[in-house]
Amino acid sequence: RRERQRFVDKNGRCNVQHGNLGGESSRYLSDLFTTLVDLKWRWNLLIFLLTYTVAWLVMASMWWGIAYLRGDLHRAHDDAYSPCVANVYNFPSAFLFFIETEATIGYGHRYITERCPEGIVLFLFQSLLGSIVDAFLIGCMFIKMSQPKKRAETLMFSHAAVVSQRDGKLCLMFRVGNLRNSHMVSAQIRCKLIKSRQTPEGEFLPLDQCELDVGFGTGADQLFLVSPLTICHEINSKSPFFCLSQRSLRSEQFEIVVILEGIVETTGMTCQARTSYTEDEVLWGHRFLPVMSLEDGFFRVDYSQFHATFEVPTPPYSVKE
After folding, report:
1. Structure confidence at residue 170 (pLDDT)
2. What does the pLDDT read at residue 256?
3. What is the mean pLDDT of residues 96-118?
4. Whose CA, among 120, 129, 260, 271, lies 20 to 30 Å from 250?
5. Could you tell me which residue ranges the Inward rectifier potassium channel C-terminal domain spans (predicted)?
6. What integer pLDDT is reported at residue 2 of this predicted model?
7. What band does 287 get if pLDDT is binned at 50, 70 and 90?
8. Rounded Cα gap, residues 264 and 83, in angstroms
9. Residue 190's pLDDT is what?
10. 106, 100 in Cβ contact below 8 A?
11. Do the domains at 22-145 and 148-309 have one common CATH topology?
12. CATH number, domain 22-145, options 1.20.810.10, 1.10.287.70, 2.60.40.10, 3.40.50.300
């Protein structure tokens, strides 16, 4: 069967685009900081460079304009004349004075004299504006670099989910693993069944979301993720898969979205990893191969078998049947 459109990709990206926002697009500007953080890196770097370049050129032009209006450019080499900014002869020298002031370098060759009140006002404005721009852009870059998105890439999900019996009960299972030695604190897993349905009143609900119980009542959804774990959803009378059989699985259309959340131990930031399983990726009558083995003084995890499954005898009937 050809691969159909997913609601959530295997890598966790949601295939949802917002269009025809109209006046609601102004909400992005009202939260400009979050908008910049959510942009891709190439746009962040472009905005970072353009903002500083434009600000530098504008402020340097203002310093050059003060020197031009006062006539300092023509009398800069006159030792008896007191200019607004010493040793500013042209636009490059005004630009260098601005950079020295903004970066607090202060080489001592160019400086403001006390006979220039407009220069003092511009200097105060430059200091305030520079602090605001630095705090905004550098803070944005720092938050973007410290986002735990890359940590989610070291959390693994099995390529397929399986349906087989465990403890005499038919269960839907998949496997999760953590590739890093650092732990995920307060790790919790949730599952959503995405499936279109029609209500008894005739209302059509596209992509209706239904919760899959993976151990809320027993605490099994709270994970101690130091080794690969098999997450189990018991198919019973309360499960949306109560009527699912091996034959009906071939004609069903659904998507299981898995959400793993936790706190990164090293940074203390919340991390979320996502994946999904369509009906084509649910293997009836299979079980995952073991990946844990006991060696000399430690447990070894063989990730080469992480996605491997094998067939086991499983009734082809639904729980209802």
Report:
1. 93
2. 93
3. 84
4. 260
5. 155-320
6. 53
7. very high
8. 57
9. 93
10. yes
11. no
12. 1.10.287.70
Where residue 153 falls (left for φ over 0; alpha for ψ -120 to 50; beta otherwise) is alpha
Closest CA to 229 of 188, 200, 276, 185: 188
> Residue holding tokens 């293997």?
283
Gap between the Cα atoms of 192 and 304, Å rounded: 28
The total of other beta-carbon atoms located within 10 Å of residue 286's CB is 19
Q: What angle do CA 160, 161, 163 make, to 5 degrees?
A: 140
Within a 10 A sphere around the Cβ of 314, how many other Cβ atoms? 16
Q: Are 133 and 140 spatial neighbours (Cβ–Cβ below 8 Å)? A: no
On the 0-12 / 13-18 / 19+ scale of CB atoms within 10 A, 315 is middle
- CB atoms under 10 Å from CB of 12, counted, come to 20
Q: 0.90 cut: is pTM over it?
A: no
Kind and range of the H or E element at 46?
Answer: helix 41-70
For the segment(s) 148-309, the CATH number from 2.60.120.280, 3.40.190.80, 3.30.1540.10, 2.60.40.1400 is 2.60.40.1400
pLDDT tens digits, one per residue of 187-214: 999 999 999 888 889 889 888 899 999 9
Grouping H, G, I as helix, E, B as strand and the rest as coil, residue 299 is: strand
Q: Are 286 and 164 within 8 A, CB to CB?
A: yes
Mean pLDDT of 295-321: 90
- Return the structure tokens found at 240: 């949306």
Return the closest-CA partner of residue 95 out of 66, 57, 124: 57
Measured CA to CA, the distance from residue 84 to residue 111 in angstroms comes to 8
